[in-house]
Design a protein that fits this description.
It is a single chain. By secondary structure, this protein is mostly beta strands. The strands form 8 sheets. It has a 7-stranded mixed beta sheet, with no helix packed on it. A 6-stranded mixed beta sheet has the order 17-18-16-1-21-24. Strands 7-12-9-10 form a 4-stranded antiparallel beta sheet, with no helix packed on it.
């Protein structure tokens, strides 16, 4: 049985593992800190891992200290990329499809990589994670020999997803690995204006303390064995395959569904998990949970009701033999919704412009969000729903050649570089009045995407 929590708007979950197709199409596995442009195949999963040099322009590569290179430490945990200089540093994942849903996982293993033993008991290392322009989580590194991993499901709005590390003044941010996995239509709570941050994925029943992931779970979720309160239940298992309904919303791994727990007698209750929510600086959060179950014993009829926080979620429920079922509900708190999110073309168009001109500016993440980290050279306007670029200044950037057609995708722009006020708009696009660096006044027409002519 698998059990997981998730928060509404940013959700946290616990769960299982799926044995099935082993395709890695759409997977991105970034080993942060290894040699630029290098790659290798992970021996346990056969997943291709690549360096982070193509995803970020800032930071310094380090290896963890030799005394932390212990048996069982993954290769991905042996290096980090550290960011001692800029306040915000962002990875840009470009191999995404607008409207598709993805699992993003960021992992951190300190291992005294900087030689300064920064992490001490009572003196944790703290920095913030952002998904695009939205706060995801405060990373709290309090154990120098422990790996911390955080997962979130999000819908791509545009062709890029940005993950940013923010220095909040409590230590230098760093990262060990960054991974992306397609989720198909799973987790309907994840929508274009609402991501879900996973808290726990627990597998009930296996006797061994183990982690289950790809290829047993085709979505590469990380399921841990639940090892607490096991004096109140018996463990059962099967090797028979578990089947799913066609409209299954969660598809936990078969390997997890093949183990389960039952009370030691029919009058006993099972206390699966006593959980104290990690609210941090946000109290307006809704936590959700999901119980996965399947009847593993032939000719057995059983039913149960699920309680959470003293309240019955529903029931009774009747698990079907070797068939996946689930119970889901939520802890009553105010729903946390993200109301500020950008037009897709803000990010896509600006990254295209950066690439076309070969700009070396520290442009990462969302151009406008959060507002205190808006890109240099841009002015943005904000309302209750969107953030839009209004002004772009590329003066003294050493640019040559024509004006890129990509500027036409930024529909809200009224000022461009030294080409200032919009003075007209014709069949080919907007016309700007501008002044060159030598004082010459010019009119510049930027072609719309329907035409390639620039006059």
């Amino acid at each position: 049985m698998a059990f997981f929590f998730f928060l509404c708007s940013f959700l946290w979950i616990g769960g299982n593992h799926v044995k099935g197709q082993s395709s890695t199409e759409g997977f991105i596995s970034i080993d942060c800190g290894i040699t630029s442009q290098s790659s290798y195949t992970d021996k346990l999963t056969n997943i291709q891992c690549v360096s982070d040099s193509q995803f970020i322009d800032t930071g310094i590569n380090y290896k963890i200290a030799s005394n932390y290179m212990i048996d069982g430490l993954s290769y991905q945990g042996q290096t980090v990329r550290s960011f001692p200089f800029s306040v915000r540093n962002c990875y840009t994942l470009s191999n995404v499809t607008d409207g598709n849903k993805y699992l993003i996982r960021a992992s951190f293993f300190y291992g005294n990589y900087d030689g300064s033993q920064t992490v001490q008991p009572g003196n944790p290392l703290l920095f913030d994670l952002y998904l695009g322009g939205n706060f995801w989580k405060t990373v709290n590194i309090s154990d120098d020999s422990m790996e911390y991993s955080f997962e979130i499901a999000t819908v791509a709005v545009g062709r890029h997803i940005s993950i940013c590390l923010i220095n909040t003044g409590f230590g230098t941010p760093f990262i060990s690995t960054l991974e992306m996995r397609p989720l198909g239509s799973l987790y309907p709570e994840a929508r274009p204006n609402q991501s879900i941050a996973f808290l726990l994925w627990y597998n009930y029943g296996p006797k061994a303390n183990q982690i289950t992931w790809y290829p047993d779970d085709q979505y590469d979720r990380l399921w841990s064995t639940y090892t607490f309160n096991n004096s109140t239940w018996n463990e059962i298992s099967t090797t028979s395959p578990i089947t799913f309904y066609s409209n299954d919303l969660f598809l936990p791994p078969i390997a997890v569904l093949q183990t389960a727990v039952t009370p030691i007698n029919s009058t006993k209750l099972i206390s699966f998990f006593k959980w104290f929510p990690e609210i941090g600086n946000r109290s307006n959060i809704e936590y959700h949970f999901i119980f996965h179950f399947s009847e593993l014993m032939k000719n057995v009829s059983r039913s149960f009701t699920v309680f959470c926080g003293g309240n019955a979620i529903g029931g009774p429920f009747y698990p079907q033999y070797l068939k996946h079922g689930f119970v889901n509900g939520s802890v009553a708190q105010v729903s946390f919704m993200c109301t500020l999110y950008p037009y897709a073309n803000n990010v896509d168009a600006m990254l295209e412009i950066k690439a076309e001109y070969g700009l070396k500016k520290n442009w990462m993440g969302d151009p406008c969000l959060p507002s205190q980290f808006a890109w240099s050279g841009l002015n943005c306007s904000y309302d209750n729903v969107t953030a839009s670029i209004k002004f772009i200044n590329l003066s003294y950037s050493g640019l040559t050649g024509g004006i890129s057609n990509t500027f036409s995708k930024l529909q809200a722009v009224t000022f461009l570089n030294n080409f200032s006020q919009v003075i007209g708009k014709g069949g080919f696009g907007k016309v700007y009045h501008g002044v060159l660096e030598d004082g010459t006044e010019v009119a510049v027409k930027v072609a719309s995407k329907e035409t390639s002519t620039v006059r």
